[in-house]
Q: What sequence folds into this?
């Protein structure tokens, strides 16, 4: 021992240097990015047999023109200015959104707290099962956290932790329960510090019950799930988007719980879809759960089709861009969208995405565009940049083309709001194919809205795209557009924030209903759009289709 102490005193300088070298080595290797292991999955290039009936003139092959590309170059150039600011007090506007969220929450808490559905005009609520499943509370919880509404968050969190149990009889929507409840629980668990084990336990319990729905011959689940069930479930023809929009949530749940069953179950669904014949990588809105083949007569980026394309990209981003065939499939689908579904209106020059009907016979193009389709503008921007601001992104020719289309679609979705008397967009719009006019056209332009499609659910897709376009390009107009949308919401729906009957009249008649996605998505995206910081960096998070941010992780 004495000899050791003598050596340490004699060579203390050498010991100190050795310690510093060891510390430097530890820090250096800890900072090194972990190598991403690429994962290959089988992907079929087989075209659907019905494509033999598709006439050649059907293809339009949309491409960005030189003028649009020049505008993009200017935007990218302007984005290099890191010290440029405007004179608008965005923090004040952001607090206006917080005030709206607080008002909406307090109205719900007063009239129907804990219920799954809320009827604000009649001041009552109802449940989807006998005991309720915390549907609204779970959906809005992470919005309350992000906005700093800690008292409201605690109220919602304590209700879920102490009063909600999924061990009950009843059937629920597999898709809605996954994106709203499971996604909401997982996001709140992560954003609040990943220490609230009760939220994770709830998510795990719900996930284990919903996952029983994957026990089918192909793994494609039915559209409803039974909270207490065992054995083989029955599924026949299912929604394409609902089956392919479960993956972000279950894969993250698998990551948190170290239970690979969750990921394997939802990956199996995507593997079946990757293997199925398609229409130039476009897919019908229905899939046969028995055969794993797409069926039906409609291709749409709206209802029952939209989030198939959204999650194909986001799954690739979620696991650090490691599952390469998901990105290959997404890029192929975008080529198909440009080839067949993108058109430009005759008078206003609005770029829009229509639908294909009768794909099993002789296909027909329909100029119908759901408000849901407006998600695509932001998704294209996300795919072009991989979540990196354009000042740092390395854009290929394809990326630039996608980013131009993203901006053009964003403009069209803005017109769907600004061309109506109320300033709010209808649920569905049609676009003129010629210069003919009808009494359904808005503002003597190209957007037509039949009477049955004039309602508004205060949907989030347009402001979602405004947020992504702003964050990825720095182009200020998207924030201004978002503010105009928020002002229209305040004029027409302030107080109860209900859905509206007809956006072509002022004031629109209020409906006795409100969607949980108004606070969970619409107000969340507006809040983040007006935020001068970077609370949810797009290089570290993916938003699920219900606007619940989930962290990116390694497989």
A:
């Amino acid at each position: 021992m004495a000899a050791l102490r003598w050596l340490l005193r004699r060579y203390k300088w050498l010991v100190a240097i050795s310690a510093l070298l060891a510390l430097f080595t530890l820090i250096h290797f800890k900072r090194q990015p972990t190598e991403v292991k690429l994962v290959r999955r089988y992907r079929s290039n087989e075209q659907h047999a019905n494509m033999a009936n598709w006439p050649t003139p059907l293809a339009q092959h949309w491409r960005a023109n030189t003028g649009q590309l020049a505008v993009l170059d200017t935007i990218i150039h302007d984005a290099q200015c890191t010290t440029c600011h405007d004179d608008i007090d965005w923090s004040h506007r952001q607090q206006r959104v917080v005030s709206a969220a607080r008002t909406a929450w307090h109205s719900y808490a007063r009239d129907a707290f804990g219920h799954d559905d809320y009827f604000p005009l009649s001041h009552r609520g109802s449940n989807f099962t006998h005991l309720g499943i915390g549907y609204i509370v779970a959906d809005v919880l992470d919005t309350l956290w992000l906005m700093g509404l800690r008292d409201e968050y605690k109220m919602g969190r304590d209700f879920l932790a102490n009063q909600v149990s999924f061990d009950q009889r009843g059937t629920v929507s597999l898709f809605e329960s996954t994106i709203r409840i499971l996604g909401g629980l997982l996001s709140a668990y992560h954003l609040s510090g990943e220490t609230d084990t009760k939220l994770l336990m709830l998510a795990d319990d719900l996930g284990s019950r919903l996952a029983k729905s994957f026990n089918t011959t192909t793994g494609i689940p039915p559209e409803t799930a039974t909270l207490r069930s065992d054995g083989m479930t029955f599924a026949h023809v299912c929604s394409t988007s609902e089956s392919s929009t479960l993956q972000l949530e279950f894969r993250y749940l698998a990551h948190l719980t170290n239970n690979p069953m969750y990921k394997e179950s939802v990956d199996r669904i995507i593997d079946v879809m990757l293997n199925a014949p398609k229409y130039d990588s476009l897919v019908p809105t229905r899939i046969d759960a028995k055969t794993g083949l797409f069926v039906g007569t409609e291709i749409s980026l709206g209802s029952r089709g939209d989030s198939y394309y959204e999650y194909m990209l986001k799954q690739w981003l979620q696991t650090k861009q490691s599952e390469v065939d998901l990105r290959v499939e997404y890029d192929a689908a975008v080529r198909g969208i440009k080839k067949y579904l993108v058109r430009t209106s005759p008078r206003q020059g609005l770029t829009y995405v229509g639908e294909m009907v009768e794909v099993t016979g002789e296909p027909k193009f329909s100029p119908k565009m759901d408000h849901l389709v407006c998600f695509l503008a932001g998704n294209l921007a996300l795919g072009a940049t991989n979540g990196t601001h354009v000042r740092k992104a390395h854009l290929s020719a394809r990326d630039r083309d996608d980013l131009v289309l993203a901006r053009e679609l964003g403009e069209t979705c803005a017109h769907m709001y600004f061309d109506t008397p109320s300033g709010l967009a209808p649920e569905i719009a049609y676009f003129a194919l010629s210069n003919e006019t009808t009494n359904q056209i808005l503002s003597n332009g190209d957007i037509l809205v039949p009477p049955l499609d004039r309602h508004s659910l205060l949907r989030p897709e347009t402001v979602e795209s405004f947020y992504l376009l702003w964050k990825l390009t720095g182009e200020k107009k998207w924030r201004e557009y978002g503010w105009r949308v928020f002002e229209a919401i305040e004029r027409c729906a302030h107080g109860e924030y209900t859905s509206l009957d007809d956006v072509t009249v002022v004031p629109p008649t209020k409906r006795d209903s409100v969607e949980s996605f108004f606070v969970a998505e619409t107000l969340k995206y507006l809040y983040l759009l007006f935020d001068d910081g970077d609370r949810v960096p797009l290089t570290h998070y993916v938003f699920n289709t219900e606007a619940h941010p989930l962290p990116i992780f390694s497989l």
